[in-house]
Amino acid sequence: MRYLFILLISLSFLQAYGVWTQQSDRGLALMGIQALDNQRAWIAGTSQSLAAIYFTTNGGNNWNSSNAAFSMLWMDIAFDPTSKWGIVGGLGLSIMGWSQIALTTNGGSSWTKKDPTQTLTTEVKAVQFIAPTTYLAVANVGQNSTPELWISTNLGNNWTRKTLNHDNYCQDLHFFNTSTGFVVMGDWPDDVQNMANQYRLYKNPMKKYAKTANQYRCSILFTSDGGNHWTVQYDDIGHFYGFGISMVNQQEGWVACDGYGGAGSRILHTNNGGSSWLEQTIPDGGRTYFLSDVHFVDNQCGWAVGGASSGVAICYIMHTIDGGTNWIKDSFAPVGPAMACHFPNKSSGWAVGANDVTQTGRIYLYLDKSGISENKYSESIPLKMNINCSPNPVSRNANVSFSLSESGNTTLKIYDLQGKCRKTLLAKFLDKGNHNIGMNIEELRNGSYFLVMNQGNNKKAITILKVE
Questions:
Q1: pTM higher than 0.85, yes or no?
Q2: Domain count across the chain
Q3: What is the domain extent for residue 419?
């Protein structure tokens, strides 16, 4: 029965979202992406043993190469959504003149080296844009891969370096300002032999120079004073390793963990600022795929990406519309695991990775081609209208509670993803205040629907999921 339930949810979610498409390959391997919308995006990686940056302004119909081939491998890229300022970080070997950090102020047309250190081997794993002159990065520095946080408030001309004082590798960061943020760390056994090994080399190319690990390890660290002091919020040894983090605010966020070949991959979730990180239920217990990144657009809607094996390494993508209570595998599975993803909104997103068969970088684009989402029905309104459905997902019966700040003629209807009204729950004059009604949807097919409340010109909608 449990597997039937999972299957029904999977089928319903396939109807609920848009379509993934594979774009033309670029480079050798692509590791980082920053998207502004479904038309404009920047990607970073490597091409023929030199770092490469590409950008598009027309939804990927054309990709332009940016002049930044002064590193071996760019690992991450970040841009300011409102300006042309950005940062990229990667593997820097100073003895060969390769850079660790580069900045742009003209939308990526040109890049300037801004290395914080001339240490022989330095691997920048993640970068973040905070303000037009303020950037952050996490790096593993030197032969011992010392984990550090780097902060610059003057366009990279000067960097403050803070050691994390933890025996693990930096993998990702999410900061809210120069003082407060999280760092995810991860390591895996050297003797792990499986289909993801070569992609883990991309994930941590300096590993062959650095310390030896005997077990998987996942660590989550938090600072509120710019890295002067760190709190270890989570530290698991022997099961999986931390990789990507996405925080929607200072209290709630998710971490993607790779445990393929070990105890299985994981999604960790917190809703209390990291005081506790709890595992969420994911397809197949995470045993048949690895996860490399996670991105949420709000506290309900998110995606996680990685790879799986089907004779060759293929892309693995899963998503949720309820904060991770239910994670559903997407049917999109081309050759080439996804290493990073970014979703500027619920209707569009990008993922990038590498295809080992053709030795090319992969670009994947997601679009909600139906054009239907909660935003279509919900508008910015002066009236306060709140609506909730419990339980959700719904089998047959549920309770709908809502509040109105003014009295008036009110309707509550259920729409399918094509915009057709499937059921009217109420249509009458209601006084302001709190209201509750029962809802029975046993006649509706399994799938996702919009529960839409309308009062005059004001609308509010939520997504509900029918499973049975």
A1: no
A2: 2
A3: 374-466
